[in-house]
Design brief:
The structure holds two protein chains of two kinds.
Chain A: H1 3-19, H2 21-42, E1 49-50, E2 53-54, H3 55-86, H4 89-93, H5 99-126, H6 136-160, H7 164-180, H8 193-199, H9 203-216, H10 223-247
Antiparallel strand pairs in A: 1-2
Chain B: E1 2-10, E2 16-25, E3 30-34, H1 41-49, E4 56-61, E5 64-65, H2 70-74, E6 77-80, H3 92-102, H4 109-118, H5 134-146, E7 152-156, H6 164-179, E8 183-188, H7 191-197, E9 200-205, E10 208-214, H8 215-222, E11 224-231, E12 248-249, E13 255-261, H9 269-278, E14 283-290, H10 293-302
Helix pairs in contact in B: 3-4, 3-5
Classes of the chains: A mainly alpha, B alpha/beta.
């Protein structure tokens, strides 16, 4: 295994994060704080409780997940798309690194950033609302698994995209609606029965539900199915990435 | 060092970039691969480096297959690409160290410093690449390729569009690499570059290797010159007593052509002129010409595929 190669990619990507700290860290923290002000304080003050939890506290897991998913996709898709765009990808393709080492470097760094951002948002949320954390280890497990899964998804997106527009169109037109309709700001049980059934086809519901359970021990779907969906999505993405490197899709002519 | 056999590459669109390429590169030699644009030079390099997948054929580097044993082959190959793909916002020092790590080498600041100094980049080590000129960026690419101490170095048009100073620096670097035993494969449009540095020269056109020759023997061909004598009266044929000179008569009979070797001790020009005078063959003008490697190259690549 080319450990030095993995370290080189990982360190390079982490350095890029700190070089663009405002974009990487400050922006998601600021936008999340605005969500707290609007949905937690302004609108939330008119809503008593959701599933026995104050509205402000209820949206914390959803907001962390929302940020994790969007930042994971954004970071990892950009990380691989930019070298493709500038042509510097030639160096990685000609280096003695396997597909899994490339993934460890790029996705590992992007997932690390996501976990850091998740942690920062969690700390930021504590300034606005009182948060209970019933199962910290489960919370950490969901945080890490979701970060890795969506970083892998972003990595696939970054390889698939052949222009900047495609790079942004999937997060905006697919991921964002799924996340907003996945119970970020509400419980699925608040929806009419028909929409509850429809919501169960949204994989993001399972991620947010499981993550919220680790905080407040209440969930829209069982924790097992949440964990299963997360792991299933992770392995699906991993399988696609392996296929990409094996066939050279959009990487090697 | 490098053994390429029956290598073919056909792109998805159907364009065949390489056709049954066979090429052997010896350890420690400098090989210049010449060819016009689109001849297949870059495709050939990219296949060896693992950037382009071959359609068929084999590439062995130090006995290892470039596809199945890619770790063994790629770790000893360095590539300076034709374009200038560089990490715009990264510093020279960091990007060189990144390349070293990527190729599996442990950190060695002394080596990276030595490489940067040899390319006159040490003063710019903390500069961001975006701040550098095109020539300096080219040097950065060379530094990156040398950072992991490759045994086989590909220089794909390394001096295209760069100034005389960098070209001279590059030649010096290649000379020092030759001394340390590194095998260098160079593609270039500049014939003088091949003349200056190469041990052997190969010409590729339409995806086919059409010539591989020792530079020395090629230069011997270059050493042959021709003397053209414009005659007062046309000749229908060369007089028999002048046959030892191997003369030719031009189509209109007004020009007598003598081919000679400048490297020979006696070119035969003086005796030929003496014999012409004795034979009463007068001339009113003369000129000489020498076919250059460039002319040979142009002649080769103009031949139909």
């Amino acid at each position: 295994m080319n450990i030095q190669g993995v370290k080189a990619i990982y360190k390079y990507e982490m350095a890029r994060m700190f070089r663009t700290a405002v974009q990487s860290i400050v922006a998601p923290v600021l936008s999340t704080s605005l969500y707290f002000v609007i949905f937690g304080a302004a609108i939330g003050s008119r809503i008593t409780e959701i599933d026995g939890v104050s509205c402000g506290a209820f949206i914390v897991p959803g907001l962390i997940m929302l940020s994790i998913m969007t930042e994971s996709i954004s970071n990892s898709s950009f990380a691989i798309y930019f070298p493709r765009f500038t042509g510097t990808i030639f160096e990685v393709l000609s280096a003695p690194v396997s597909w899994i080492e490339v993934v460890l470097g790029y996705v590992g760094a992007a997932a690390t950033k996501s976990v850091i951002i998740g942690g920062i948002i969690f700390i930021t949320a504590n300034f606005f609302v009182t948060i209970e954390l019933a199962h910290p280890l489960v919370m950490l497990l969901f945080l890490i698994l979701t970060s890795i899964s969506f970083c892998l998804f972003g990595f696939i997106l970054g390889i698939w995209a052949d222009g900047w527009e495609k790079l942004t169109v999937v997060p905006i037109l697919v991921i964002m609606p799924l996340t907003f309709l996945g119970g970020t700001f509400y419980s699925i049980s608040m929806l009419p029965p028909a929409w509850q059934t429809v919501s169960l086809f949204n994989p993001v519901v399972y991620l947010i539900s499981g993550f919220r359970w680790s905080f407040y021990e209440n969930a829209d779907v069982s924790v097992t199915s949440s964990l299963g969906t997360t792991i299933g999505f992770l392995f699906l993405c991993l399988f696609i990435v392996r296929w990409i490197f094996k066939t050279g899709y959009r990487l090697r002519t | 060092m490098l053994s390429i056999k029956n290598l073919n590459k056909t792109y998805a669109g159907g364009f065949q970039a390489l056709k049954d390429v066979d090429l052997e590169i010896n350890q420690g030699e400098i090989f210049a691969l010449l060819g016009p644009n689109g001849a297949g030079k870059t495709t050939l390099i990219n296949v060896v480096c693992g950037i382009v997948k071959p359609t068929s054929g084999s590439v062995l580097v130090n006995g290892y297959d470039a596809v199945s044993d890619y770790r063994a082959t790629r770790s000893i190959i360095g590539l300076v690409p034709q374009e200038l793909p560089v990490e715009t916002f990264e510093s020279v020092w960091k990007t060189a160290n990144f390349s070293r790590g990527l190729f599996g080498r442990l950190s060695n600041p002394d080596h990276v410093e030595q490489v940067l100094r040899s390319l006159s980049l040490w003063d710019k080590k903390d500069s961001r690449i975006i701040e550098l000129s095109g020539g300096m960026k080219r040097r950065v690419l060379i530094a990156k390729a040398l950072s992991h101490e490759p045994d086989l170095l590909f220089l794909d048009e390394p001096t295209a569009g760069v100034d005389v100073e960098l070209r001279q620096d590059m030649w010096n670097v290649v000379s020092s690499l030759r001394e340390s035993g590194v095998t260098v494969i160079l593609t270039t449009h500049y014939i003088e570059e091949a003349e200056e540095m190469a041990d052997r020269v190969g010409v590729i056109n339409h995806g086919e290797i059409i010539l591989v020759q020792e530079k020395v023997s090629l230069m011997q061909e270059l050493g042959k010159k021709q003397l053209f004598l414009h005659l007062h009266e046309p000749l229908s044929e060369v007089p028999t007593h002048l046959n030892p000179y191997g003369l030719e008569v031009s189509g209109d009979g007004f020009e007598l052509i003598y081919t000679y070797d400048t490297k020979e001790e006696h070119t035969g020009i003086t005796s030929l002129l003496g014999e012409l005078q004795e034979s009463g063959i007068g001339f009113n003008d003369l000129r000489t010409s020498q076919s250059s490697l460039e002319e040979i190259f142009v002649d080769l690549v103009k031949r139909p595929a």
